[in-house]
Amino acid sequence: MTDERINYRIIFILIKINSNLTFVKEAIYIDEGNNFITNQVASLAKPIFKNAFSNNLKELKLF
């Protein structure tokens, strides 16, 4: 059986624009060891990552 977990890193970049505005960027890096991931699978996962980013922003807003 193949290990179907995806090894990835998420990096948030926060850039303060002014005292009331911060630019937030999320970068997702999928490790090269995930040989079973193709462009098709990555494109299917994109909406999931977007939803997770949206949820993370909502949590960040609470701080």
Please give the domain count. 1
Order of helices and strands: EEH
Relative helix content: 25-40%
How many strands, what sense, and barrel or not for the largest sheet? 2 strands, antiparallel
Distance between the termini: 42 Å
Structural class: alpha+beta
Structure, briefly:
The protein has 63 residues and is α+β, with helices and mostly antiparallel strands. Helices cover 37% and strands 33% of the residues.
Features:
63 residues; alpha+beta; two-stranded antiparallel ribbon; 1 helix
Describe what you observe in this structure.
The structure is a single chain. The protein has 63 residues and is α+β, with helices and mostly antiparallel strands. It has one domain (8-61). It is built from one helix and two strands. It has one helix spanning 39-61, and strands spanning 8-18, 21-30. A hairpin with a 2-residue loop joins strand 1 (8-18) and strand 2. The longest helix has 23 residues, at 39-61.
Secondary structure layout plus pairing:
Layout: E1 8-18, E2 21-30, H1 39-61
Antiparallel strand pairs: 1-2
